[in-house]
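Our collaborator T.R. sent over the components below with a one-line note: 'Predict the complex.' Nothing else. No constraints on interfaces, no templates requested, no preferences about which chain binds where. So this is a plain run: every listed entity goes in together, and whatever single assembly comes back becomes the starting point for the next discussion.
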Amino acid sequence: MSILSLQNVVKRYDNHVAVDNVSFEMRKGRIFGLLGPNGAGKTSLIRMITSITRADQGQILIDGEPLNDHHPTQIGYLPEERGLYKKMKVGDQLLYLAQLKGLSAKDARTKLNYWLEKFEITDWWGKKIEELSKGMQQKVQFITTVVHEPKLMILDEPFSGLDPLNTNLIKDEIYNLNKQGTSIIFSTHRMEQVEEICQDIVLMNQGKIVLDGEVSAIKDSYKEHKFEITFDGTFPEDIREEGFKIIEDNDKSMIIQVQEGHNSNDLLLSLINKGIEIKAYKEILPSLNEIFIKKVEESNE
Amino acid sequence: MSKINLIIGREYWTRVKSKTFLLTTFLAPIAIVVVYGVLIFLMTRGSDDEKKLVIVDHAGLTQDLKLNKGNLVFSIAEVELDELLEQYKDKAFDGIIELPPLDSAQKSYNIIYHSDDQLALDESETIKSIFRKRIRNFKVRAFGIDQEQLKLIDTDIGLEPQTILEKDKKISSMTSVVSAVIGGVLGFMLFMVILIFGQQVMRGVNEEKLNRIVEVIISSVKPFELMLGKVIGVGLVGITQFVIWFLLLFIISAIAMPFLGLESNAGELMSNEVTQEIMKDQGFQDTMMKIMTELGGMNWAMIIPLSLFYFIIGYLLYASLFAALGAAVGDDVNEAQSLVMIVTLPLMAGLYIGMAAVQAPNSTLAIWSSIFPLTAPVVMPIRLPNDPALWQIGLSIVSCLLFSLFMVWLAARIYRVGILMYGKKASFKELGKWVFYKG
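Returned assembly:
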């Protein structure tokens, strides 16, 4: 079952197509990475999902239903460009935004208390936003995104401007919410974060999807059959003739590519047979970063 | 609907609770009253330093002269002018008033004041008025005119209008004056309110755009709801402020007026004497009576609700436009200012036409600009006390309603695109394009 389903969605501005016939499915309860270089159309896409703008063509379904007026209360959105009313007090602001998301004043207060206690910031209630540091404001903003217990959360660069401590705090909360069943769209440029957090990804470039699928499957399909070997003894140079290519030679550790017609066991066997002692053996998978750059460059051509 | 209430609530309460609101609402009227109080006090009080003046009379005008007048202390010279001029350096007196010989055929008469110090304006007026009266009496006697006949020479002229066909309509000579004052005040107030609070809406919208909170909010509510909520919220702040001002001014003047009145009665002062003289005048009391009856006779049942209508419509129309501008411009102040100028222009035109309409409420220009929706909110209230024809009021209401609905719609279209648009210069051509953007 898909929490979010896009079918041939198109969004045009003035004289360029920001989102060009995009379709994908996002499975319920997953953490989903929305990737792409600047100007790829991620923000335009997110704005359509959050009902800020409407698609020119195509359909967006949330939990099987076409986008309607009730959906904004089921979505939590943390935009990349953060903003709060600077002169307003933290408590008033949180209450206001929570009520705009459809909570009653009483519910909002209970749920806000839970989050403020969780982040140990209950004493901020009467402070004005402008008195808080940037990192503190981010925490407040994060609470506004989650307080109404959305089914679908959209986080645009949620860790930008956070110190490592707060990054971990927010990351843990993202995992927590995901465990409780919240589906999360995570938009970022930071590939190491995507690799760490996301289960599925969509890669966009120039308004189109260039790559789509499970992170592990994608990495698998882009693997180049490279293996890193750490060993003791003299390296048998004649292994080249058997269909293995040495990519990197670092004395006691090497990266070897297995050519067509062989597999990793063949490499291991022939190395053992040549009498060297294997200390470690591991497949080198391409990083998402490499795949990202490769795919974007390909689609730009 | 409950969301728009939330937005109105936020816009209203954050403003009403702010320090600026408290300051402008409570301190402004107090400041105005204090400034006026001090001004009136200073003006009526004049200088209280005693001024000793010696009169050298060659005209025979000083028989039975009261020797004190305000701060002026007169004495009649017992020696010649030359000797007095010699004595001046002893500082026993402040100056010498020389009255040259007077002939009844003289049309003008110059009193000479010998002193190194200038007389204050009210002092010289006092001196002139004393001798004007005495010279008049002197001439009346010289010409042998009877005092009683003299009083009858001047006649008070009134011009009383009488209706011919509209017999029920009560009018008097004061109708046009009272109507002009009420209309002028109404029109000016509407102009100020629309301008001040319209610009507040613009600043509020622009702030939301620049600190980017708008993206979070319009992922929860429709841009139109946010815009309308802000316009209504700020409008309510304006109404609140005016209600408080009226109450405060009423209370303060109720407390201050008797005090000021007493203060000015206590001193025997020239300006006050003038008013007292007018008060004694039968004509003045008549005028007051007429003004009161005119005020009572105004068609308040029409003026008040219609003024309110024009306030709401005018504010809605212009505040929406200001909201669209706030959404369209970025943080470039110059860009904002030139656009504000263009939006304010019809309003300013309305005020100028309105001020002319105070004089001639039924001129063609006044009639049509009280129907044209961009100027009507200012011009029509100015014309209201003059009972404009019903078809004009009706046409004006309809055109205002339709046009303001259209403008709110148009503003919402621009607003919706503008608040998410960064780094694009908001030209009119660009704004025009935004209107036709989809979704």
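Summary for T.R.: The interface with chain A takes residues 3, 6-7, 10, 14, 18, 208, 211-221, 420, 433, 438-439 of chain B (CB under 8 Å).
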